[in-house]
What we know:
Layout: H1 4-18, H2 24-31, H3 35-47, E1 51-55, E2 66-70, E3 76-82, E4 86-92, E5 98-105, H4 111-129, E6 133-140, E7 143-145, E8 148-151, E9 172-176, H5 177-188, E10 196-203, E11 205-212, E12 215-216, H6 253-260, H7 268-276, H8 281-305, E13 309-314, H9 316-322, H10 324-334, E14 346-348, H11 355-368, H12 371-380
Parallel strand pairs: 3-6, 6-9, 10-13, 13-14
Antiparallel strand pairs: 1-2, 3-4, 4-5, 7-8, 10-11, 11-12
Amino acid sequence: MASPRWHGALAVLAEMRRSPGATRAAVAQRLGLSSGSATDITARLRELALLTETPAAAAGRGRPTTVLTPHPDGPVVIAVDLRHEDWRCAVAGLDGRPAPLDAAPHASREPERAVAAIGQAIRRVHARLGDQVRAVGVAAAATVRDGRIVQASTLGWGPVDLTPLGLPGIPLRIDNDATLAGVAEARGGAGAGASTALHVTVEVGVGGTLVVDGQPVRGATGAGGEFGHLPLGDRRLRCPCGALGCWDMTVDGRALARHIGDPPPRDPRTYALAVLARTDQTARAAVDRAAESLGRGIAGLVNALDPEVVTLGGLAAPLRAAAPGAFADAFADGLMTFRRGAPPPLRAAALGDDAALHGAAATALDAVLTEESLSTWARLRGA
């Protein structure tokens, strides 16, 4: 429980984050605050450079209104998305909206070089913004346990230490990219409003997470959500993770290439997009097989996890759309009988390729919007 000094402030900042662009009056109404209390709290937050009020878009006659936005001199977080082919670095204010600043393809498959390049980008942001940077969040296309990469099978990496990406005295949050994309979709995307949201994404393999009340179910060590390594595939195929029969191997670009008879693609995601755009019979048959596997696997997850809504990220929604009949039949056939009358809705993810960046920013902001962190910020401001 926050102290009286910060209780109202944290509530207002959380609402600004939950509903970017909200007016002071709307925030007060949602929080049950009087007009006077809302005015006092926002005035205090302006003094601390935590928020500001900017004119809203004109909406006819009457007194112009203002919306709550992050203060330009206020706290920010750095968000990083470490993907299979490249990385991106962004900065986000207290509303959690990441603004990309830097990006580059991997210069090599050596993890040390990727970590060094990302670290340089983070330090450049810190050099420019100084004490405004209050946390760093990293989304990694890898299995993450206890805040460290233990395996990035599609990159060919084993254990990789990402702690060099941290900044002195500043929290560093590292998590799987699909997990963070699921958090972002559940909090402010296609799963917003659901207390229990299942996120399933297809990139190179399958990933995802179950989000309950805005928090991912990470498991005992943080490595939960590796849905792609459920043994739902062909046991004759060994996955780069080391296991046999992984679901991963049946739904992405590697599976499409295998069905078509092409060699394994260097970039399975780009290859998959090209196949999904094709209309020839060979490509259509391959897409049907992948869509069937996707539908069947999601049905199994629904049976096991009982979500209120399912959000589909990455290539999952395009794959479903490319073979709707095959997907729908497999999904329905895989559901337990009692679920078929009212299955959870399946929704295309709303945040697109930026979902993991949004999630990395959200996780970093979780470390910033605390009483301890805001008290530190107030001391830096001399308040």
